[in-house]
Design goal:
Elements (H helix, E strand, L loop, with lengths): L2 H6 L9 H10 L1 E5 L4 E3 L7 E7 L2 E6 L5 E7 L4 E2 L1 H4 L8 E4 L3 E7 H9 L2 H27 L2 H16 L7 E2 L4 H8 L3 H13 L3 E4 L2 E4 L2 H6 L5
Antiparallel strand pairs: 1-8, 2-7, 3-6, 3-8, 4-5, 4-7, 9-11, 10-11
């Protein structure tokens, strides 16, 4: 599939005419990354923005001691690196492929030129940034105010809303338990203990990555002792 064809199916570019999209495709560079391969590193000078054409990547921040906190996941068709694309500041986080991924990089100056002539595109960028800001605020609230079990329960309920066909049906988590632990701010061992506790209380069924929420009310309450 050509760069133009890849970009044409990206929701961000819906509404662009063929000439504008072709000009963008001519300047874009597509790269393949293996699982766990770094795409952008914290403090890199990134004057570009990226789009996941296939696969999935994680946005994370690590402490000096190496503890990693995943901030959010970027799915197929979604962009990242907007926060520094139009500034001269270094990128504040790491971006790593979670699975084999195809990523397009578009120079910021070309995106800026396009946005000037396509107000609808700029509105979509603002909407994406607003959504990311809301995700960050929710994460800060969860880490500061919620206990570990409450964060895990909230993650499972959110995952069900994203990946289950309907409430109460089984769904498969798109990430490993190790990555899930980094999202909710705990260790893999603690995550496993909480999952087993939720299973014993018949709040969920779990086998590997396959999860089914059995009791939504009790899981939402998350008041079953730390």
């Amino acid at each position: 599939m050509s760069t133009y064809e890849n970009l044409r199916r990206i929701p961000l570019f819906t509404g662009l005419n063929d000439q504008a999209l072709q000009a963008l495709a001519d300047r874009a560079r597509m790269s393949e990354y293996g699982a766990e391969e770094r795409i952008v590193s914290q403090s890199d000078d990134v004057q570009a923005f990226f789009i996941v054409l296939s696969g999935r990547v994680k946005i994370s921040r690590s402490s000096p001691r190496g503890k990693e906190q995943i901030l959010y996941l970027v799915e197929e068709g979604q962009p990242f690196c907007f926060c520094t694309a139009f500034t001269d500041r270094p990128y504040p986080v790491d971006v790593t492929a979670l699975e084999p991924s195809l990523v397009a990089m578009i120079p910021a100056r070309d995106m800026e030129d396009l946005a000037r002539n396509a107000p609808g595109l700029m509105l979509k960028i603002v909407q994406i940034l607003s959504g990311r800001l809301l995700e960050a605020m929710n994460l800060v609230e969860a880490l500061a105010l919620q206990g570990t079990q409450e964060r895990i329960a909230g993650f499972l309920l959110h995952a069900e809303s994203c990946f289950a066909d309907e409430p109460g049906t089984a769904f498969s988590l798109p990430i490993s338990h190790r990555e899930m632990a980094k999202i909710v701010g705990t260790t893999s061992e603690t995550l496993s203990r909480v999952i087993q506790k939720l299973k014993r209380r018949n709040l969920i069924e779990a086998s590997g990555r396959v999860i089914r929420v059995v009791d939504h009310a009790e899981l939402s309450d998350a008041d079953y002792g730390e």
